[in-house]
Amino acid sequence: MNLTKIFIIFLITVITQSFVLASKDSEFTVEKANEYIAANKDNVIQTYRLHYHFMAPIGWINDPNGFIYHKGEYHLFYQYNPYSATANKIHWGHAKSKDLVHWEHLPVAMAPDHDYDADGVFSGSSMEKDGKLYVMYTGNSENRQVQCVAVSEDDITFEKVAENPVIEASTLPSNAQPQDFRDPKVIKRDDRYYVVTVSKTTENTGQVLLYQSEDLIKWEFKSILLQGTSAQGIMWECPDVFELDGKDVLILSAIQMPVVGDDYHNIDSVIAFVGTIDWDEGNFQVETMKELDHGMDFYATQTLLDDKGRRVAISWMNMWGRSYPTAELGQGWAGAMTLPRILSLKYNYLVQTPIPEIIDNYNVVTAINDTSIRNSSFIVTGVRGAVGHLELVLEIIDASYFEILVRMGQNEKTFIVYMPATNELILNRTMSGMSISGGEDLSVDQRQVKVPLEDNKLSLEIFLDSSSVEIFANNGTETLTANIYPTEESSDGIQFTVVANEYIADTNQDNVNQTYRLQYHFMAPIGWINDPNGFIYHKGEYHLFYQYNPYSSVWNEIHWSHAKSKDLVHWEHLPVGMAPDHGYDYGGVYSGSSIEKDGKLYVMYTGNSGNSQVQCIAISEDDMTFEKVAENPVIDPSSLPTNAQSHEFRDPNVFKRGDLYYVVTVSKTIESTGQVVLYQSDDLFKWESSPYSCKATAIKALSVEMPQVGDDYDNPSSVIAFVGEVDWTEGKFQVETVKELDHGMEFYATQTSLDNEGRRIAISWMSIQGASDPTADLNQGWAGSMTLPRVLNLRNNYLVQTPIPEIANSYELVKNFSDYTVKDQSVSFTGVEGKVAELELEVDLKDLSESFDVQLRVSKNEKTLIRYVTATQELILDRTNSGVSINRGEDPAAHIRQVKVPLEDHKVSLQIFLDRSSVEIFANNGTETLTASIYPTQESSDSIQFTAVGSAVINYLSFSKITVIDMKEYSHENIRFWMAVNDLRRSAQSQIAWKIQDIFESLRIHRQFFYYFREFLAPGAPCEINIDGKTMEKAKSGNAAVCAGSPTTDPALVEIAATLSTGLTLLTASTMELSIAVTARQLSEIYGETCISIQHVRKWCREFSEGRTDIHDEKRSGRPSISDEVVEYGAAWRTLDNSNSDVDDEVNKSLRSRRVNPASRIRSVPHRCGL
C-alpha cells in the first residue's frame, strides 16, 4: 500500500470570548445566568477543553439551536445549563462568528422564565423577518410541550411574544402524544412560512408535522409530512428541512432505531432523508435514507444557508444515555459542537466536508509523499500534539488491513482501522483513556462504516482536538465522530501499520526458531496460538481451528486459523479461516465451534469488539474458505439473562439433538461468577435462549479465579468436567460429579469431537492464561501449541483421558526393561537419550515405604522430576529445575503440581510423553493427567534416573523415540498421501488395499509402510517404480485398469520409500512377491516365539494379491504359531481402539497379572531372526 500523501497539521486557533452582562432579580432569568457565568467561568478546568470546536464558557451544552447566517455573521444558539454540567434548567445560550471557527460568546438569549417554558427552553430554530431575528422554540412545562416565538431587535436580547404559545398541543393530529411535541424548524417558501416539528405517536413511532403561517404567529396544521415506522425508532427529534442540489432533504434525530448492519448502533441516530416534498399536499416522497455519522458522539444536527450559497451543518458532539467524564470529574463543563460541515449530495445521499475556513489555522508540521508500507509499522517522528489535522490518501495495493494509531501513549491509543476485504472503516476508543459507558446493548467504544475504495484509494481527513476525533472518509462520503479522554501526558503520537494478505505464506515462517518447536504436537506455522476451536470430524478428516495471531507471538489481533488431519498426528496447514475484518469482530475472532449442515461446514464464534461480545456464524462450501453471514451477529447480549455482563459473553459450542440445534455459551454474572447459557434454533440463525447456571464458581474459569481446594485449581484458570444429566425440556443440568480435568501447569480451553469410530476425542491448549511464554520472550517467532489429542471415557462417573492410539504408529523402541527391583538407591537406565519420546512404566509399590522418583531430560544442572509419594498417594510433577523459568501470576510454587493417584493392586502405571518443550503424564490409564511446558537450556543426558526410597519393583519400563514424518514434506500433491485409502476402497481394485491395510493396521506396523504400498497399489499409479536403480513392478494380473500403463519414476514415492526404515530392502519381482526385511523383523517381534522370514512375507503378499487368504485365516500356509498371550493381546488392542474402557480395564488386568504389557509387548519381544 502506498501513502500517496500525508499532511499533519496543527491548529493554532485562539477562541476569543466576550460577554455582555446584565442583572435581574427574578429566578432563572438571562440576567442571573449571565452574572453566574461571569463569576464562575474562570473556574472551569481546562484539561479536556477543546481548541477549535465550539463550547459554552461553563456548564452543560447540548443541541445546537437557531443556527442562522444573519447580517454577515453566523449565529449559533444552543441548549444550555450554565449552573452545572448536567442537562437541567435548560436556557438558550448564544454566540456568533464571522468564520465558523472563532466564536464570540453573547449573553444568554432565553431563560425558562414563563409558565409555558418553566421546565426548559427546548430546541428550535430562527428566522429573519423585517430585519429582526425571530426564534421559534419548544416550551416545556408540566409534561406538556408547546411551540413559542421570541423576537430580537438587536440580535442579542430576546422578548418572548405575548401570543405564546403560538402552536398548542390541541392542533396535533389524533395519533400524537402532546408530551412529545417539539423542536420546530421554521423556513420560508415564497411568501409563506412553514415549520416542521416532530411528535411521538400513540404507536410509539416518530412523525414529522407540517404547519404553515403568514406571519410566524398564527399557525395552522397542514399535514403529516412524513410518518415513521417501528423500524425507524420510537420517537423523532430535531428536524431540519431544506433544498439542496434540486432535491429536498429532511434531517432528523431518531431515538432507539434497531441496529441494521453497521447502522444505528448508538441509542439515538441522525438520519438524512433525500427525496421530494409536495408542498401542496404536504407530504415527503423519500428516495434515499442514510445515517449521517457512524461515530459514537453525533446528534441533533442543524443547518443554515450562508451568503456563499453553502448549506452548513453543525451537531452536538455527544450522545444521550452516556457517561460524561468532564462532568464526573467535576471539571465544570460537559458537551461541545462538532466542526461545522458543508453538505452536498453524491449519488443522492448527503456527504459532509469540513468547512474550508479551518484551513487558515493550519501549520504544516510534516508532509510525506509516495511512501510504501508493507507488513510493518512506522511512527511519524516530530509529531507531538493533541490538537491537529491529519490528511492521508492511501492506495491499497494488497493489504489485509491498515491501521492508524492516534493519541498514542505508553498504554493508550485510539485505533482507526481500514479492512479492505469488507471495505469497513473502524474507529475504536477502547484504549483511548477514560472509560465511557452508555445505555446501548452494544459497546460504546467502537463504531464502523463501509467505505468502498475509489480507484483503489482511500482518503481520510482526521481532526484531533483535546478530547475529540472526527474522521472524514473519501471526501466526506462517510464520517465518524467521537469523544476521547486520554489520561497520559504522552498520548499524542501517531503510528501507521500495514499488513499484506500473504504475510503467512511468504518467508516469515522460515524465520521461526526451531529450538523448542514440538515434533508431534500441533502448532501453528508462525505466531501466537491459543484455544482450539471448531474441532470436528468432517468428510473423513479431523478439522482443527484455533485462536491465532500470525503477526506476532503475543495475544492480539486474533484470527481463526485452520488445519486438517487423517490421523490426529500428521497435520496439514490450511489457509487462515477467518480474520477480524468486520465491525462486530474487529477486536478479535474469538473462540467457537463447528457443525456440518447440508454438507457444508458451519462455524459459530464470538465476535469481540470494544466492550461487547456477540455470537456469529460463517459458512464454507469447500471446507477452506469461510463467508460470514449477513445475519451476524446471530446472538447479541440483549438475549442474555439480566444477571449477565455483556462484555463477558463468549465461546459458543454448537451441536444438534433431534431436529433442533443447540448452543451453549458462557457469561460472567454481575456477581463475578460463571454461568452457562443454553440457546436453541431450527436453522442456526434464529436463536432463543433458555438460561441455566451450573453449581460451580466458574465454568472454564471464565475471567474468575477458582479457589484452591486441596490439589485442585492451583492455576489461575482451570478446566472443569461436570458429569450429570441434562433435562432438555427444562434446559437444566443436574450435576453429579465435578473434576479438574488436568492437574498440570499448562492445560486450558478443551474442545472435543466425535469421530467416525464413535470416539470422543479431546484436544486442549497446552498453555494457560497469565503465564509467560519463553518462546515469545526469546523472540523465536511463535508461542503456544496443543496437547496430544486424547480419547475420553467415563470411569466411576468421572472423565478419564488416554492418548490417541494413532500415536503408537510413530514409536521406535529404544530400550525396554522388566522385573527390576530398586531398593533405597538410584538407577540410571542408559541409552535412552531423546527429547521426543514416550516412556511407559508400571511400578509395584507393595514394599515401598516412602516414594519413588523418575528424572527426565536430565543434564548437568537441569532435570524434570516426577515423584510418587506412597503415604499420600500423590503424583507430583516438578519443573523447578527444568530450564527457562516460566513466570506465573499465582505463585510461589508455580513450578510444582500434584494430584492424588490411588494405587491399583499396589501398583501405579505411568505413560509419559516428552516433546522438545513439553511433558504429558497419563497415570493409571488416564485416571489423572498432568501437562506442562518445559524449556531445557542444556543438552539432555542419555539416561533415565529412577530412585526409590524403600523397595520398588519395576514390572516393566519401555522407552521409545517418536518420529513423525512431516506431512507437508511427504505429501504427494496433498492428495495421494492422505486420500488413497478412501479412493481404493471405492474402486474395483479395493481388495488388495484392504488386505494390505489389514496386515499393517491390525498388527500395528508403521503406517509409513502402508503409505508406500497404497500409493503403489492405487489405480492409475505407475506400473513400475525405480528406486535407487532397482525396479519394482506392479502386478498386471490381466487387468489393465490396475496401473497407468507406462513405466514411470515417481519422485514423491521414491522420497517416501527412502525414508521408511533402515532395514527396508526392495527386490525386483515380476509379481506381487515383495521382500521387506523390516516387516519380517517387526512381525517376529510381535509373535515373539518364531522367526518370520522374508519368504513368509513374500508368500503372504502373493496370496493377498490372488485373493486366496486373509490375515486372520487359521489355515494359512506357512503361518507361524501364535501364543495365547499374543492372541489375547490382539483382542486387547482392538478393545483399546474401540475405546471400550470397561472391557479394556479387565483385559489389561488379565494381561498384566501375567507380566504381559499390552502397550509395549508389540515392541519388547526380542527378535531372533538376525535381520
SS content category: mainly beta
What is the typical, i.e. mean, pLDDT?
Answer: 78
User: What is the molecular shape?
Assistant: elongated
Percent of residues in beta strands? Answer: 35-45%
Uncertain runs:
1-26, 501-507, 691-706, 966-1171
Round the Cα radius of gyration to an integer and report it: 38 Å
How many H/I helices? 13
- Please estimate the helix content: 10-25%
Give the total of beta strands: 64
How would a crystallographer describe the biggest sheet?
10 strands, antiparallel
Q: Give the terminus-to-terminus CA distance.
A: 63 Å
Q: What features would you describe in this structure?
A:
- By secondary structure, this protein is mainly beta.
- The protein is built from 13 helices and 64 strands.
- The strands form 14 sheets. Strands 53, 54, 55, 56, 57, 58, 59, 60, 61 and 62 form a ten-stranded antiparallel sheet that branches. Strands 23-1-25-30-31-32 form a six-stranded antiparallel sheet, with no helix packed on it. A six-stranded antiparallel sheet has the order 24-33-26-27-28-29, with no helix packed on it.
- Strand 39 (600-609) and strand 40 (612-620) form a beta hairpin.
- The longest helix has 14 residues, at 1124-1137.
